[in-house]
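Before a computer can learn anything about folding, someone has to put a protein's shape into writing. The three-dimensional part falls to structure tokens, numbers that each stand for a local backbone shape. The protein below has been through that process, and both of its lines are reproduced in full.
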Amino acid sequence: MKELKDREQIQSHLRGHRIDSIFNEELMSFASLYLFNEGDFICSQGDPSEYLYIFVKGKIKIYMTSAEGKTLILSFKTPLEVIGDIEYIRGIDIINTVQAVSTVSMVGIPYRVLRKYGSDHAPLLRFLLDIITQKFHVKSNSLSFNLLYPVEVRLASYLLSISFDETDSLFSDELSKINVKDTANFIGTSYRHLNRVIQKFVAEDLIERSKGTIFIKNREGLRKMASRSIYE
């Protein structure tokens, strides 16, 4: 992770997402640009929460770990998103682990600064309200989709959600890896049922499976099957 005190870059990112009004002058003076490499952890479940991050570039994975050590992937996100908003409002430790799937850029600001200079700043409060309510809306839709859509559609959509290409072009030369057990947990099916669907996808030359890992071969074919990404 790298921290930059580059006001011009920060303002450029905020303008690019049309949220340049959410920080007043005092807040802006304390904001930093944080750069994460693929695989870096932005925050970890159970750790003290001290920063609000505005996710402006890249792709991240959000997951939780049970007391028994089992991992459940909750979602994959692209900008615009906020990390640490619920923790800030409720004053609690980090709820879920957030990890960079690609190179990631985030605008970060300490909670102590937000409480001092942002508690009465209406544009920031409206922004946080919009983000939090949107999260609840997406969560509700995701739960509904897991009940309404067949496993084939859910798996195709899941694979699309974790495929990443910086230029948004077709995924041709690179292959995206996933863990099969994590996938079964996430899309709400059994490991056995998922294996049957995976075998079908392999036969249709959409994916390749090797040593418990799935490799995406035909991203366009998956897109046609899913019609939309229901997990983002």
In short: Residues 58 and 168 are 11 Å apart (CA to CA). Confidence is low (pLDDT under 50) at residues 166-175.
